[in-house]
Amino acid sequence: MAVDSAAMLAWLEKVAGRLHEQRAYLTDLDAAIGDADHGVNMDRGFTAVMAKLQAEGAPADVGAILKTVGATLVSTVGGASGPLYGTAFLRAGMALAGKTALEPDDIEDGLKAALEGIKARGKAQAGEKTMIDALEPAVAAFSAALAAGKDKRAALAATADAAEEGMRATIPLLATKGRASYLGERSRDHQDPGATSAAMILRAAADQE
Question: Which of 52, 70, 129, 135 is the most exposed, fewest CB within 10 Å of its CB?
Answer without folding.
Answer: 52
